[in-house]
């Protein structure tokens, strides 16, 4: 009896030790990108790119999706927009290098409030709010609860409405009291390392994953225990939250554009993107055939044209969408199946 207990203790100690060591290695590989900003009892990590002289566009705030961090949207858009507008890339509360704050930050409205306070600190009065995937729910909540700060909305493959079904099993375990603490320290990190390559390819599917995305977007940051658990809590809370709040999207009056694909393996565009188009009067839905869950990377030209249109420029997004479809057809699609470590299709 003593020997099995001793062996168990040794194995647990080794597992905890590996998780702590590997988390440290991940942080060394992907150090904090940005500055920690106090928003009232906790700190949010944000990367602020000041406005250039005579900016062509209003300030733009980027909100990343589930399992992400600010590097995801920075990698997609900074090079294309720097010098044209003031940019703000944010690690959502409890993600990347941001502290979690209180329990309200397990919900999109709490995270929207945190982003609003970061804008206050940086002197950004109004901005175009860009939300990808889970970030779409936060962008919508931002527009509902902070309309005076919302110059416009760009949704990229958003998750914003109640859907049939649930979320993947590991989110439920990681979000659970007590059990989640053990799971994120014994299982999620080593399993995530094994699955990372296929999982990131599946998020881009059926399109090809960007070269060096794993190195540049730093998705491994989510595998750290507290980050993984915060991410799981966010996802587990989403369905009930959007069930309650999505009827209020009808209150949104800011100029709104929704870019989505008909081949998204993660989010059901017919529920979320079309739901937003129905709820937000005057919004424009841009549907791209063959596009998966990453319009920010696969069709960034369409996304930037959408920001320009929100800012009042004349842009034919439908024509740009058709050109993007032609490019996707010519480039082919990935043969990588969707596997593990993604949100169950919502």
How would you characterize this protein structure?
With 346 residues, the protein is of the alpha/beta class. It has 13 helices and eight strands. An eight-stranded mixed sheet has the order 1-2-4-3-5-6-7-8, with helices on both faces. β7, α10 (272-279) and β8 (284-288) form a beta-alpha-beta unit. α3 (108-121) packs across α4, α5 packs across α6 and α5 packs across α9 (225-245). It starts with a helix and ends in a 15-residue tail after the last helix. 50% of the residues are buried. Residues 334-342 have low confidence and may be disordered.
Quick overview of this protein structure:
This protein has 346 residues and is an alpha/beta fold. The chain contains 13 helices and eight strands.
Q: First CA to last CA: what distance? A: 47 Å
Low-confidence stretches: 334-342
**What strand line-up does the widest sheet have?**
1-2-4-3-5-6-7-8
In terms of quaternary structure, what is this? single chain
CA radius of gyration: 20 Å
Number of helices: 13
Question: Tell me, what's the shape?
Answer: globular
Classify the secondary structure makeup into a structural class: alpha/beta
User: Helical content, roughly?
Assistant: 40-55%
N-to-C series of helices and strands = HEEEHEHEHEHHHHHEHEHHH
Instruction: Characterize the biggest β-sheet.
Output: 8 strands, mixed
Number of strands: 8
Quote the average pLDDT: 93
Beta-strand fraction estimate? 5-15%
């Amino acid at each position: 009896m003593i020997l099995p207990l001793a062996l168990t203790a040794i194995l647990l100690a080794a597992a905890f030790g590996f998780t702590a060591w590997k988390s440290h290695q991940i942080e060394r590989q992907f150090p904090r990108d940005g500055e920690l900003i106090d928003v009232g009892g906790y700190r949010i990590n944000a990367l602020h790119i000041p406005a250039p002289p005579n900016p062509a566009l209003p300030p733009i705030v980027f909100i990343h999706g589930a399992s992400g961090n600010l590097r995801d949207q920075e990698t997609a858009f900074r090079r294309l927009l720097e010098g044209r507008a003031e940019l703000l890339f944010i690690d959502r509360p409890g993600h990347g290098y941001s502290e979690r704050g209180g329990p309200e930050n397990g919900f999109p409205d709490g995270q929207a409030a945190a982003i609003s306070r970061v804008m206050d600190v940086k002197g950004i009065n109004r901005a175009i709010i860009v939300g990808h995937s889970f970030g779409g729910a936060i962008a919508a909540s931002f527009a509902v609860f902070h309309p005076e700060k919302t110059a416009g909305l760009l949704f990229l493959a958003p998750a914003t409405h109640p859907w049939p079904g649930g979320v993947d099993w590991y989110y439920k375990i990681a979000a659970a009291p007590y059990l989640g603490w053990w799971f994120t320290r014994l299982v999620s990190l080593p399993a995530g390392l094994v699955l990372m390559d296929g999982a990131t390819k599946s998020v881009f599917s059926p399109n090809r994953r960007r070269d060096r995305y794993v190195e540049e977007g730093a998705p491994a940051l989510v595998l750290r225990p507290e980050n993984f658990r915060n991410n799981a809590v966010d996802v587990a809370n989403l369905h009930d939250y959007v069930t309650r709040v999505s009827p209020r999207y009808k209150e949104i009056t800011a100029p709104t554009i929704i870019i989505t694909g008909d081949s998204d393996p993660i989010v059901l565009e017919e529920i979320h993107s079309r739901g937003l188009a129905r709820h937000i009067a005057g919004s424009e839905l841009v549907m791209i055939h063959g596009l998966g869950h990453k319009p920010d990377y696969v069709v960034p030209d369409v996304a930037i044209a959408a920001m320009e249109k929100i800012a009042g420029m004349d842009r034919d997004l439908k024509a740009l969408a058709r050109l993007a479809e032609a490019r996707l057809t010519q480039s082919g699609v990935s043969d990588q199946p969707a596997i593990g470590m993604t949100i169950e299709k919502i």
